Amino acid sequence: MAIKTFNLPDPGEGLVEAEIVEWRVAPGDTVKVNDMVLEVETAKSLVELPIPWAGTVAELLVEVGQTVEVGTPIISIDDGKGGDDASHARATDAVPGPGSPDGQEAILVGYGAKAGASARRPRKQAAAAPPASEVVTATPEVPEPTSPAPRTESPAPAVEARAGDVPRPRAKPPVRKLAKDLGVDLRSVTATGPDGIITREDVTAHAERGPDSAAAEATPAGARGAGPAAYGMPFGSGEREERSPIKGVRKMTAAAMVGSAFTAPHVTEWITFDVTGTMELVDRLRRDREFKDVKVTPLLVLAKALIVAIRRHPGMNATWDEAAQEIVQKNYINLGIAAATPRGLVVPNIKDAHGMSMLELAEAIGALTATAREGRTQPAEMAGGTMTITNVGVFGVDSGTPIINPGESAIVAFGAIRKQPWVVAGPDGSDEIAIRHVTQLAVSFDHRLIDGELGSRFLADLAAILEDPGRGLVWG
Q1: Could you give the domains of the chain?
Q2: pLDDT in tens, 240-270
Q3: E strands present in 167-260
Q4: What does pTM read for this prediction?
């Protein structure tokens, strides 16, 4: 038999490690080419890893919860054929991965090639190459050295198969992450979701019932209504302090925000205004047959208004290139929507939003939000943004001072919409008090390239469109 060892591929984006979140297979399981065998969490997203070979799982070389470096052996497969692993490694080294004709090293599915990637070793003789049927065309191959350097640390213990395992519980990745944080075994949770899927509420209820003391004592604040990103045990219970490792998305977000806050000189401006016209438009669109299959919210109107306002003030859609000492004007809009997820804040963006109709924009926002909530946002979906909207109003917050997303020059915060007394012009031109829908917008911008006049005009136009959406037809 031939045992093939699969190493953790390079995720690109400058990332050098990943956490093992879930194994989809166990020793003895049969796998086919491109079967998803493992889910890992990088600092930017959850990624499913396919196996490039068919065969039987011989051994799981790392455990769930471990953080391992790129190139670490993670699983071995018995392909049922003769030969040794070294000969296979030499053969697969000779086969460049798809999309890498120049010989760049393989990377995770869905990621771009890493700048400066090392070249593969020269192709061996044809006799050493694997049969054409063994060449994986849908998944990048992972190069393995013929004589790997000895590792200084102790190897990860093998993961043994559990005898008598029940079928793997059905749950989405964020729910699995919550269960892991609570110390809850999903196999002991009663599922109430459709088709037997375990929901977040199922896990929380199971933890609160306290089927085991470890789960009961580890319930985080996020499971008790504080939101998915909250940490810690119920206030006043257990230990006086609890420490959580800074890793994954939260670690990457923290580094990015610190870099942005101390690199770009932030200026924030606010405006309070009447959005009754926007609320009336939202009601009409919700009744429109063309929009019956999409979610229509004030955020959709704001997104469309922002595109119109950027066209009127293109200087808002530029960036400062410190290395080249240039201002880079971007004649396209990749609109970022900040999303709170169980793994922390992510900012995926809608590519080329400037060319979308209102309906297309609604569909794109819906897809982006659904992907983010499932923890499936990929690095490519978060790269290349030009301006971001953060909707703090969904939490009942009026406004805030948002920090500019790295690589951009402005961010808009959308506050809560509230009914309150407002001065309006009466039929005869006199002032009257009426109950109106009122909100706040805030815009933070990089004062190196956006001065107060440009930022103020942009914010005023944005508010004017939301106040009277008809202006969007005139200005757009």
Answers
A1: 3-134 (2.40.50.100), 170-244 (4.10.320.10), 249-475 (3.30.559.10)
A2: 677 777 676 667 667 777 777 778 889 999 9
A3: 170-171, 197-198
A4: 0.57
